[in-house]
Amino acid sequence: MSKAAQFTNRLKDEKSPYLRQHANNPVDWYPWSEEALQRARREDKPVILSIGYSACHWCHVMERESFEDNNIAKIMNENFVNIKVDREERPDLDSLYMKAVQMMTGHAGWPLTVFATPEGAPFYGGSYFPPEDQYGLPSFKKVLLAVSLAYKKNKKRIETVTSDVEGTLKKRNGVTPIELSMEISDAAYDSARIFFDPVNGGFGRGTKFPHAMFLKFLIRYHERTGVKDASAIVNKSLIAMAEGGIYDHVGGGFHRYSVDERWDIPHFEKMLYDNAMLSELYSIAYDSTGKAFYRDVAIETVNYMLRELRDENGGFYSAQDADVNGEEGAYYLWGDDEIKSVLGNDAGKFMEYFPVTKEGNYDGKNMLRISQSVKLNNGLPAEIKRLKGKLFNSRQARRAPDTDRKIITAWNGLAISALAQAAMSFKEKGYIEEAKRAANFILNELREGGRVLRYFLDGKAAIKGNLEDYALLANGLFSIYEVTGAKEWLKEAGSLAEEMTSLFYDEGSNLFFDTGKDQEQLFMRERDLFDNDVPSGNSAAADILSKIAGAGRGGRYRKMSEDIIRSVAGIEDEPLSYGNFLSVLENAERARLMPAAAGKDSG
Predict the structure, then answer these.
(1) Residue 183 maps to a domain
(2) Is there a single domain that holds both residue 140 and residue 270?
(3) What is d(CA 215, CA 579) in angstroms, rounded to the nearest whole number?
């Protein structure tokens, strides 16, 4: 067997599509394993942890530029033990090392590049590194050589760094309880107003993320308090996103985020979790306002998930790629000549709503966005919807982005909740039937000996589920109970909550760990309290525990839920990072569960 073949074999038989994407690199890749760490210890080499996911554009770029380069691969192979990690497969590894790199450098993203000791302790890292010095970043080659030299010549310094990082991470896992009151919501709202962009909607400047969880909190906050500015922030943001290029006007659904503050040009991958949370958000906004435009966006997004992400057995796939044939966004862009060819004499009507030029707004082509104010009460005109349908049919002939067919338990929990909400908001029985199909698939195929597993792919489930898998799935099941009133769904959610408590709860801190007591122990046991791309495991746990207590089952769960929220000391100061925690607090207040009603529970 040739040496090149050995490089391939460690990843080619992995389940993860992301790992298999790298199976032909000339890099001596390992999956995360004790075998890799043992080799690092035996040869006294530092470890490179490269963490990403299959739909990630910049992950593809770094692969093409560096991991497929023989010279760079040679440096990696001679000086490091190289490990590839799918962040969707191992969110515990991703979360822990992401926090470490953020602590060391002040920023981090995907692809995440971590340099660690043979024991797995991180001492340096970053995100994307270019093959040559550019973008104000050193070349990956320079970084590799500098890190290798530092490891060989300055071990004491590296030991100091790893000790400091580990100590700081453990300190951050400590908690200082705060007083639980609705003033937390008031302070969070006041703090978030500072970050709101009144011109373009959303929060911050430059790159824009939807912040679905925080906008959901603001809807609930407005409903409780009547604060008009909270409603104004929500409406401005929802309209701007749905009119902008971050929304797929032809096929429905949202891209990952916008690279500009006007929501014009997206980062093109589509994730199940974004579309589940945003479809739920627009459904709730429709309930709150009655605006037909919100209904249209919610339904188009739900239908996108059902059409393109649903497995024939009912579960939902995790993502669609940003690139096609190495071109970012190619599937979603339009030339003016294409639109005129497809729509003929109707092209002018379409361009009244969607400005299209010969020059385009992205690499000579057009990313569609609505150019005029939509009549919210009416939504888009029927004629425009018909023309969108013609473009959709034409686009179907293009090569579509690859789909990552992992069916992830936690993200399916979000999809189930979104479908249940859509069923309630739009009185559509078909949506609740789809929610039940997905739930039954997860319950039947992603449990082994009662233990929930992380994901399903190619006919098999794999990897023990984390806290978020239990908590978000249980929330999804509870949402079916709320719509149908069928007690078996409440019972199933309660059983998951009980097992979740047994596996993840930490009596010492009154919080949950992200990994179970039956899972691999890393250099520290991870507990992430930030609501990042998906609700944190702890906020999702607080949510389901509060709901089950409110349904008259498990009275102790109410206190556990309150204790979790009390433990989030940064919730008032960094509200955008705790959107789901704030929603849980608002929902509990709405249901009269916090804290004055605590004594009323008979469980």
Answers:
(1) no
(2) no
(3) 8
